[in-house]
């Protein structure tokens, strides 16, 4: 990776990704922070393309930019009376210190470690290899992931829906107030 | 200077640090979830970079890991947002420093 195009792509994508992440950090408005997060996701997808991982890049766009971002935007819009100001808690300065320490330690390890032989040419047809390993050696985790997704989504729906019995009982107690037969079957 | 593994690792470290700060310090629960997503993205980027650059038989297993991480992240964000909605419905706020029901 030493062509001019590689340099241009990497540095512009890196600036977009980290700049958008810093935008989330400093933004005062939660909607603006969400838009910055989407921009950061798109930048990471571009970096995947630069790393010759086309399938991961497409999944990143579909799942993160397409699904998760819309889900989070809806969650912001459905909590209208909550604070939208994206302010910090009292953990601000400890968080800053921890962020600096983690970045320093990880960068030190990344630069000082000898990572061994470097592959010059990327592996082609990564989607085919991913698909074959998903149905061969990783078939059990694959099925477990399917069960996990089903359980999580059913759980999310069960959490987020209003409890109909509670509402029914509440309305009945309002309309039937004063009557003696309070032991209704709701 | 060629673009190598270290470039991507440093970029992943920066993204992870920013995500850590956002997850720790933001007041809004959805902002905290944004930080978690940033951290997961940083880890995925690091894994894909290792799979691209390290010469190994199992290097492409990293891509399979990334697919699993994305699936679990999607499940996690769905449950997290549902929890935020429930807390909002019961308490009229999703500020994490005002949800202190379990604090003694």
Give me some keywords for this one.
A: 186 residues; mainly alpha; B: 104 residues
Strand % of chain A is: under 5%
Termini separation of chain A: 68 Å
**What would you call the quaternary organization?**
heterodimer
Shape of chain B: elongated
Cα end-to-end separation of chain B = 56 Å
Task: Give the tally of β-strands of chain B.
Answer: 0
What are the secondary-structure elements of chain B, in order, as H or E? HHH
Helix share bin of chain A: over 70%
Q: What is the residue-mean pLDDT of chain B, rounded to a whole number?
A: 89
What are the SSEs and their pairings?
The complex is a heterodimer of chains A (186) and B (104).
Chain A lengths: L3 H23 L3 H21 L3 H24 L14 H21 L13 H10 L3 H22 L3 H12 L11
Chain B lengths: L4 H21 L3 H25 L7 H31 L13
Helix pairs in contact in B: 1-2, 2-3
Please characterize this protein's 3D structure.
- The complex is a heterodimer of chains A (186) and B (104).
- Chain A contains 7 helices and no strands.
- Chain A is mainly α.
- In chain A, α1 (4-26) packs antiparallel against α2 and α2 (30-50) packs antiparallel against α3 (54-77).
- The model of chain A has no long low-confidence stretch (mean pLDDT 85).
- Chain B is mainly alpha-helical and 104 residues long.
- Chain B is built from 3 helices and no strands.
- Chain B has helices at residues 5-25, 29-53, 61-91.
- Chain B is elongated and about 55 Å long.
- Chain B starts with a helix and ends in a 13-residue tail after the last helix.
- The mean pLDDT of chain B is 89.
- Chains A and B meet through α1, α2, α3, α4 and α5 of A and α1, α2 and α3 of B.
């Amino acid at each position: 990776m030493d062509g001019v195009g590689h340099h241009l792509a990497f540095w512009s994508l890196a600036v977009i990704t980290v700049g958008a992440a810093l935008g989330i950090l400093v933004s005062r408005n939660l909607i603006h922070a969400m838009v910055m997060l989407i921009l950061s996701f798109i930048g990471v997808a571009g970096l995947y393309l630069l790393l010759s991982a086309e399938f991961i890049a497409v999944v990143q766009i579909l799942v993160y930019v397409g699904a998760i971002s819309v889900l989070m935007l809806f969650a912001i819009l459905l909590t209208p009376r909550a604070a939208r100001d994206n302010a910090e808690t009292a953990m601000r300065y400890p968080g800053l210190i921890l962020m600096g320490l983690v970045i320093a330690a990880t960068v030190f390890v990344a630069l000082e470690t000898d990572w061994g032989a470097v592959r010059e040419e990327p592996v082609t047809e990564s989607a085919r290899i991913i698909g074959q390993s998903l149905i061969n050696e990783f078939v059990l985790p694959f099925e477990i992931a399917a069960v996990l997704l089903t359980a999580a989504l059913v759980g999310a729906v069960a959490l987020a829906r209003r409890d109909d019995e509670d509402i029914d009982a509440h309305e009945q107690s309002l309309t039937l107030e004063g009557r003696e037969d309070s032991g209704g079957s709701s | 200077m060629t673009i190598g593994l270290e470039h991507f690792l440093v970029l992943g470290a920066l993204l992870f640090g920013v995500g850590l700060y956002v997850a720790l310090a933001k007041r809004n629960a959805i902002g905290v979830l944004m930080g978690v997503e940033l951290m997961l993205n940083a880890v995925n980027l690091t894994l894909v970079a290792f799979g691209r650059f390290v010469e190994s038989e199992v290097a492409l297993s990293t891509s399979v890991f990334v697919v699993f991480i994305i699936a679990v992240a999607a499940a996690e964000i769905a449950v997290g947002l549902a929890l935020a909605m429930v807390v909002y419905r019961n308490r009229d706020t999703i500020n994490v420093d005002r949800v202190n029901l379990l604090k003694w």
